[in-house]
Amino acid sequence: MDARAGRRCHTVLNALHSTHYFSPDVTRELKALGITHPSAVNFAVRAAALGAVGPGTVAAAFYNYKYELVAAHVPQVWRTASPEDVLAARLRGVDTTLRRLLGEELVASPEMAEAAELALRATEACTRGARPLYAAHADLPVPAEPHLAYWHAATLLREHRGDGHLTVLLGAGLDGLEALVSHTATGKGTRPKWVFSTRGWNQEEWDAAVDRLRERGVLDGEGELTETGVALRKDIEAETDRLDRAPYEHLGAAGVERLTELGTLITGTALQAGAFPADLLGKR
């Protein structure tokens, strides 16, 4: 199997998982629980599987959010609604979101059921060690409906890779903001405006991270990746692939190819329906 086949498969699954972070349906469900601030909604829906943890745990598990932003909403969010109530509200919001973005025909299709079966099979080879967000979500029950089971499996695979990715970033000597800056410099990361509004950092802190990366030779004077920077990001992704290879090797080359095909269809439909802001990704 192509060493990058797992990464390609993960990319389309991760995009489907991530639709709920931008969903008005999830926001509405959380508002009904009394959680209204966008950052509080974000921390609640992603961290609820960990239980009623404090800001330190959330900041550590999320890695690239400013601690002060996390502490402004956690643990207060758990005094507003329990993690169990948040998880139930999240699943209701995801259900509404997927039905809205994909349409009832695709939601109920044989292709969706097949994608769920393949994605769940891949998760059988995921491991919990040093992967807190994956391990917490792996303890949740698998939803019965195929589209929700598929989303659940995509969530497990996303957090499994993500937890490993943070280990690689730490080993590469990149703090959370430096990781964001260098990823944005590839043209595939989140634009600075979204980092500021969702991660809690500001322009001064961003510029300081740029300066640190210039001193390391990762960025040039224009803020673009140098040869060293390109190699660093390439090595980070390759090592992340290595740590995340087990689920896709377990599924096998044919299974990965088919899941990628189905995932591309499903995610492509969601993208065409406007699942994400048009200006989310880019360098500027």
From TrEMBL:
Protein name per the record: SalK
Domain of life from the UniProt record: Bacteria
Family annotation (InterPro entries): HTH_67 (IPR054058)
Record organism: Streptomyces venezuelae
One Pfam family, short name: HTH_67
